[in-house]
Design goal:
single chain, Rossmann fold, 5-stranded mixed sheet, 7-stranded mixed sheet, elongated
């Protein structure tokens, strides 16, 4: 049962999700989850797209589908409310073990100040934030985050962006100003990794930009990319009634396109790929072999 503070946090969280039009799920199907559903109905907040339950015995509850944590990837879920005041840590671990460490859950037992700060941080969330837990272990040593947008993949990344960057999700300091097409500060084969998120699709000559990024990679270094599949991205924008990013220049931009460019070089091997990743993106990691 929700106490007074948790009840108020629930109202604040649901109001945020409704205003932001965020698709979300409630983790749990017990008493707390049913209380949340009562608040949703009485306050005319948007409904969750699903309940999440470990090993669900039913597929529908109160007209809402019930899914397992393993099925989250098949949905458009962007946020998760923990429908419990007893098993928060277990739920977090289950989300993480199923590859959803990026889904930082809304814990109604948090203090009022903590829940307000958590909701504020979700309002301006970078693409990198979605995959940080999954990809940061590929970004060890010295390497740049090209087009970091104020939110680098790791605290030690060399942060590069335009002098007047058009994305500023967090307040991490920018180390270098320049264009992603040229990395003149770095010698050949000098970096342990190059990371970039949602930048490569903005350039006409994808091959030329990749050649420059790979130039600075040492043998054994990793090119770590998180990028949009353009057709999936445009379909997502259409479903959200939002215009697509005007900076995207390739209608056929995809995992297969970037992979083909890298493999034709003859000095890169693919060590990780995932598509789709987070609805409209893909992950691609290639290691330089010579």
């Amino acid at each position: 049962m929700l106490n007074q503070s948790e009840h108020q946090n629930a109202i604040e969280a649901l109001a945020f999700l409704t205003v932001q039009k965020r698709t979300y799920a409630i983790y749990g199907t017990g008493q707390v989850a049913m209380e949340l559903l009562t608040i949703i109905r009485s306050g005319k907040y948007i409904f969750p797209v699903a309940f999440i339950k470990d090993s669900p015995e039913i597929s529908i509850l109160e007209g809402i589908k019930v899914i397992s944590p393993e099925q989250i990837d098949e949905t458009s879920i962007k946020e998760v409310i923990l429908g419990t005041n007893s098993f928060q840590e277990e739920m977090r671990k289950t989300l993480e073990s199923n590859g959803h460490s990026d889904l930082v859950p809304i814990d109604l037992s948090s203090s009022r100040g903590d829940i307000a700060a958590a909701l504020q941080s979700k309002q301006s969330r970078s693409e990198t934030a979605k995959v940080r837990q999954a990809l940061k272990h590929f970004c060890i040593g010295n390497g740049p985050d090209v087009g970091f947008g104020g939110d680098p993949i790791t605290d030690t990344a060399i942060c590069i962006d335009l002098p007047n960057r058009y994305a500023a999700y967090q307040n991490a300091p920018q180390h270098l100003q320049g264009d992603a097409q040229s990395l003149p500060w770095f010698k050949d084969k000098s970096m342990d990794y190059v990371y970039s998120s949602h930048v490569l699709e903005d350039f006409e000559n994808t091959r030329t930009v990749l050649d420059e990024w790979i130039r600075v990679l040492r043998v054994g270094g990793s090119l770590v990319l998180f990028l949009p599949d353009e057709q999936a991205y445009r379909n997502h924008c259409k479903s959200q009634n939002k215009p697509p990013n005007v900076h995207h220049v390739h209608l056929d931009f995809s995992l297969d396109l970037v992979k083909s460019i890298l493999l034709k070089r003859g000095d890169m091997e693919i060590i990780h790929e995932k598509s789709p990743s987070h609805i409209y993106s893909f992950e691609l990691i290639a290691r330089r072999i010579r």
